[in-house]
């Protein structure tokens, strides 16, 4: 009896330490109101990923851009109106891929048919991201549900809240640190670059200033830089050209991204900086040598990211459409 009381008291104390909004999230939130929720999302993302293999990386990036700016409220999904320029149209978000938006819309459409006015777009994005990461070979992690959709989205408020490809480590640490993430968590989340791609425009200035002398730019492996130059040769004619962030296993969620960095096989300035900076290099080396540790730390960081700035209860709404507020 005494042991039971101790366990009960410990559980109650744990609940009281949770933020009020976070404590209203449950992994089985839709068990009664929309029992087919998990299966509908899983079927949708599976079909989309098979048809469009870049969907997983794009959705993961979309989730990052939603949560790091103003919390995980689905505000990145809102379209601009004649009276408001939404955050999805901010300069840094213009390169977010259409397939990522589309997979959320498809899941929302199916869910509205199964259980109207029940499932938020923010929850769909969170679960779709997890399912796609797992589908690519990454870790499974819990996604508590019950987020409400935000009603506002403003492009002018985005600047400075999201990581940019050319940021220094100090700047990256500041961006993630302002959201409560440690240096190690920042490195773990950067491992999302194990899948996906970057546009040539995001790093072209570095590779085209590169010479054959190793001293001129020690960050890039010379052969790799040459390959990037060839891949991005037509950038002036085609600004949408892109390359994989992990050239070794681009379609598999693993720790090879971290193994690439000491070899000069990083694509972006921020990738190179992770290995070159003394604050982050130990974690790069840790994850390069231990994929299980990377997966465990990435999963924990994603769980933390997924409840950032959420709206629950009477705050926010359940949108009828993911691209527009109900009023």
Automatic annotation (TrEMBL):
The keyword Disulfide bond applies. Residues 1-23 form the signal peptide. Substrate binds at residue 163. The record marks 61 as: Transition state stabilizer. Pfam families: peroxidase. Its EC number is 1.11.1.7. Keywords: Calcium, Disulfide bond, Heme, Hydrogen peroxide, Iron, Metal-binding, Oxidoreductase, Peroxidase, Secreted, Signal. Disulfide bonds join 34-115, 67-72, 121-322, 200-232. Binds 1 heme b (iron(II)-protoporphyrin IX) group per subunit. This is Peroxidase. It comes from Malus domestica (Apple).
